[in-house]
């Protein structure tokens, strides 16, 4: 196994394949589940935004979208278990990429959402973006590395007009540089944001940058499982990284799982100032439940 500088195992290869079979095959063995846990929170924010701003079809920018997983869960009401079954095993392995795409396009046609959402995916993997767009999961794509480069005029146009910005696990590799560039692509508009961030990565630099752009950030109650550690060595390396950063892993990462926290950022204003972490919590949320 190869490990990155944070101690996490390198899974870069699963994000760059022509289709998502390797992605789901590998992550299924690690019980990767954070998109499923994020789904009700994203859906609740979308509902609030529709009602508050009277937007019929909100536009979401999904940062680090890979194969459009969040889009598929939100737009077509599938689950991670369905996706694991859809892309794993001998049956899907025997299909060509075009056959796999045809099956996914049928899914996107058959499951018309009651409340449509337009999702634009931002990612550094051209293959993942291409598949997600052709499958009908993503409505548009931006292939860019906004950590190092400003968006081109075309990329800026595709990012512009976002109502919400979501991410599930890319913060830490993606920093305030990317988020700042996404916000500045909106002109004077400020989209709502919701980011699930691994506890091993500090969110304070992002929060400070967003505050400078006119945002107030609230961390939701509870923690959220992301995936199991890939090996005892990965766990040891990550725990060392967390200890060096002053993060207590007792009862959480020390027990074998990576955990994330949810940060919700809205523009400053009377409505934003009256919100609390409770507003970001789904009705059946219990921070003491085992899956959180």
At a glance:
The chain has 292 residues and is α/β, with parallel strands linked by helices. The protein contains 12 helices and 8 strands. Helix 2 (34-53) crosses helix 3 and helix 9 (176-184) packs parallel to helix 10.
What is the strand and helix layout of this fold?
Layout: H1 21-29, H2 34-53, E1 59-63, H3 69-76, H4 80-87, H5 90-93, H6 97-110, E2 118-123, H7 126-135, E3 140-143, H8 153-159, E4 164-168, H9 176-184, E5 192-198, H10 204-212, E6 215-219, E7 224-228, H11 232-244, E8 257-267, H12 270-274
What would you note in describing this structure?
This protein is an alpha/beta fold. Helices cover 40% and strands 16% of the residues. The protein is built from twelve helices and eight strands. The longest helix has 20 residues, at 34-53. The relative contact order is 0.15.
């Amino acid at each position: 196994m190869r490990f990155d500088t944070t101690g996490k195992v390198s899974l870069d290869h699963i994000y760059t394949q022509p289709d998502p079979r390797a992605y789901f095959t590998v992550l299924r063995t690690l019980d990767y589940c954070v998109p499923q846990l994020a789904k009700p929170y994203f859906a609740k924010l979308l509902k609030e935004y529709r009602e508050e701003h009277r937007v019929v079809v909100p536009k979401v920018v999904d940062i680090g979208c890979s194969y459009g997983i969040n889009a598929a869960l939100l737009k077509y009401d599938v689950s991670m278990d369905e996706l694991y079954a859809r892309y794993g095993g001998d049956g899907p392995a025997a299909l060509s990429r075009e056959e796999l795409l045809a099956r996914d396009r049928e899914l996107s046609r058959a499951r018309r959402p009651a409340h449509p959402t337009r999702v634009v995916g931002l990612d550094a993997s051209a293959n993942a973006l291409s598949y997600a767009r052709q499958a009908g999961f993503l409505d548009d794509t931006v292939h860019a590395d906004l950590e190092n480069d400003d968006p081109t005029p075309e990329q800026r146009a595709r990012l512009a007009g976002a109502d919400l910005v979501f991410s599930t696990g890319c913060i830490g590799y993606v920093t305030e540089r990317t988020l700042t560039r996404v916000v500045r692509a909106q002109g004077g508009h400020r989209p709502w944001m919701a980011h699930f961030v691994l506890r091993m990565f500090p969110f304070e630099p992002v929060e400070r940058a967003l505050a400078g752009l006119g945002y107030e950030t609230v961390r939701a109650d509870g923690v959220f499982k992301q995936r199991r550690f890939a090996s005892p060595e990965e766990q040891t390396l990550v725990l060392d990284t967390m200890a060096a950063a002053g993060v207590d892993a007792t009862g959480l990462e020390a027990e074998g799982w990576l955990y994330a926290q949810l940060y919700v950022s809205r523009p400053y204003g009377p409505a934003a100032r009256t919100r609390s972490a409770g507003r970001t919590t789904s009705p059946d949320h219990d921070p003491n439940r085992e899956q959180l």
